Amino acid sequence: MSTIKEERLQIRVDPADKLLLERAAAASHLNVSAFVVQAAAAKAEEILAERSSIRLSHQAALAFSEALERPAEVNARLAKALRRKRKFSWLD
């Protein structure tokens, strides 16, 4: 089942980049538009996935886990902040 594509994306490229894209599209048995969209979408997903996870070294992961297991200590500055009137309200 095909989808109707209503959005348009226009880009300018130098001749060498255009030739490279055309060659890669042909090698992939795709037209240039399909190749560019697939490549750009894959890169976009990769970048967004990197932003949604945090990679820690073993030592950093242990330190993070230990910090989560320790009870929080409320110091005077935090207690004052918690008593302060809020400028926002949560939307439930």
Give structural notes.
The protein is mostly helical and 92 residues long. The chain has a domain at 15-70. Helices cover 59% and strands 0% of the residues. The chain contains four helices and no strands. Helix 1 (15-27) packs across helix 2. The chain is elongated, with a radius of gyration of 25 Å. The model has no long low-confidence stretch (mean pLDDT 90).
Helices and strands in order, then pairings?
Elements: H1 15-27, H2 32-52, H3 58-69, H4 76-83
Helix pairs in contact: 1-2
In a nutshell, what does this entry contain?
With 92 residues, this protein is mostly helical. Helix content is 59%, strand content 0%.
How far apart are the first and last residues' alpha carbons, in Å? 40 Å
Helix count equals 4
Mean pLDDT: 90
Low-confidence spans: none
Helix content: 55-70%
The radius of gyration computed from the alpha-carbon positions, rounded to a whole number of angstroms, is 25 Å
Percentage of β-strand residues: under 5%
Secondary-structure content class: mainly alpha
Largest sheet: none
